Amino acid sequence: MVSTIPYNCTDSQDKSTAAPEHSLLTYDQLIDRDQLVEYSANSHTSYYLFSTLAKLELRLCWRIQQTLLDEGFEQFSNPDFVKTIGIEGISGDIEGKDLLNLLPTQDFGDRESLNAMYLVGGASKYPLISYFARHTLQNPQVLPLNIFSIGRQYSQVTEENSSLLNTQQSTAITLLNISASRNEMELNLDRILNLYTHILQDFGEVRIIQKGASDLDLCEETRYVFQVCLPVSKKFVQVGELSVEGDYYSRRLMFKQKDEQQTYRNVWTLSGTLLNITRILPIVLETTQNNPKLIQKFYD
Fold it and tell me: HSE of 158 in the Cβ direction (CA atoms, 13 Å)?
């Protein structure tokens, strides 16, 4: 399923101040012209942000943090590392093939030992969901719980080109919703989908794709992918996703609620990356390059 929030990607510039389309630059050209990013010689995906781009990254984090707090979300601070048991319990991938693992030490082994340590980042779903493993909510009246975390996400990158759209380390905002029942989860799904679109539509044309069964992970009932248009490069970039896991994590990780009759019952979850800040920066650069009024709204 594909749906698009109406927004004309090619009309992202204010007509009264925008330059002719042929003079607009892509985000790579803007970065080179204004020296906004330095790519490290240690890795083609290592980078440093400078000037307005570094400030914009911070402002976007603060802006969305305040939006989530206003919506009743609670902020978590998660570790950057998870061991094999956490990876396998959440994703079902016992080898963590798409993740970065540390070299073995006396405290943990290599990937093949099934006791490895993985660098996933505090804004990854792995440490956020692992927190609730073998956990019982004694007071289910607190549900639904809405939680978010701001930090880093790490993943393996195979492409050789240097780009903010292709980095091992990203700044991101992830969220988790825990509901008491399937009906409550479905109500929260509608609310969170509206929250995604409300936040993303400020950045341009948004496309929402519902993935089919063949594209889903073991833990997912369905997944929504959120893409935003690069107006000059004229392509869509994935900046977020939302997974519907149902009671999978409750059964898999022994995460339960105890009702008034002292009966253990499953909980129901939604989780995903609300916004990959690093990947949204090129979109903001292209959209606002000739109109300072447009970029100012991200600082308000």
Answer: 3
Structure tokens at 269: 């979850």
pLDDT digits (tens, 9 = 90+) for 227-262: 999 999 899 999 999 999 999 999 999 999 998 888
**Cα 141 to Cα 118: distance, rounded to the nearest angstrom:** 35
The contacts of residue 114 (CB under 8 Å, 6+ apart) are 84, 94
46-51 CB contacts, 8 Å cutoff, 24+ apart: 46/167, 46/168, 46/169, 47/162, 47/164, 47/167, 49/281
Listing DSSP states for 163-205 in one string gives BTTB-SEEEEEEEEEEESSHHHHHHHHHHHHHHHHHHHGGGS-
Q: Tell me the per-residue pLDDT of 2-38, one tens digit each, with 9 for 90 and over.
A: 555 544 454 433 433 444 455 889 999 999 999 999 9
C-alpha 83/C-alpha 120 separation (Å) is 10
Dihedral angle over CA of 283, 168, 86, 187, nearest 10: 10
Alpha helices in the chain (DSSP H): 27-34, 51-70, 84-91, 125-130, 182-200, 248-252, 277-288, 292-296
